[in-house]
Amino acid sequence: MQENVGPTEELGIEQRGAVLWLTIQREERRNAMSHGVIAGMADAIRAAQHQPDIRAIVITGAGPKAFCSGADLQASKVFTGDYSQPHAHLAQLLRAARASHIPLIARVNGFCLAGGMGLLSMCDMAVAASHATFGLPEVKVGVFPAQVLTVLQHLVPRRVLAEMCITGEPITSAQAMAYGLVNHVDDDVDAKLQWLLDRILDKSPAAIRRGLYTMKSVETMAFEESMAFTESQIALFTLTDDAREGQKAFQEKRKPLWTGT
Questions:
Q1: Angle made by CA atoms 235, 237, 243, in degrees to the nearest 5
Q2: pTM confidence score
Q3: Within 111-239, where are the H helices?
Q4: Local confidence band at 79 (pLDDT 50, 70, 90 cut-offs)
Q5: Taking a C-beta distance cutoff of 8 angstroms, is the pair 72, 213 a contact?
């Protein structure tokens, strides 16, 4: 099933079954981000949290050449917005992604540069085409990937991150895989993406939703704080209808019928 749920000129928003696809539609600009793209993506991610029929969100770029090449350097106020507002657009998008309890999956179909690395890093998982290229070239235009660091710094080794930021030189998809930046690399990115989605969509929606909340909550906690929090969470997991159904299905040797509650 394919259902359009509010596409815009620059950002395609399409629900395909249980998966929401957010596609940057600026192929002529190598899918560079405009302020409208960023705001639209943040709004779509927030809205999806209240739609129980959406089980995963895929973020990608139109065409075969670029996932996202970062900010549009041809635009005015490319790195800034309204100075009277305390939060920048990209920061608000990264906050929306951080608060998401629906898995975000990056489909990296080509160049993934600068702010595009932020989109990649804010996702929970990523599948990349073999020809994809990754980089942080901001120093080449006199700036630095400051906001991107918030979501990227925990994904790759510190020395790799320093080299990418300071030299601005790109890495290949094979290197991105070796550094843990992506989960899978394949010549057929869509086949691999579907393989990953299939492994998500047959699992408990309730467990994934509460599980993502737990994972993101404990990431910055000290050991004892994390243990105290997860001690309470594990009890709540078992109170869901999905948990009861999952255990019953296991005992009866059948596939579970998830309700997501």
A1: 120
A2: 0.91
A3: 115-122, 146-152, 158-167, 173-178, 189-201, 205-218, 223-238
A4: low
A5: no
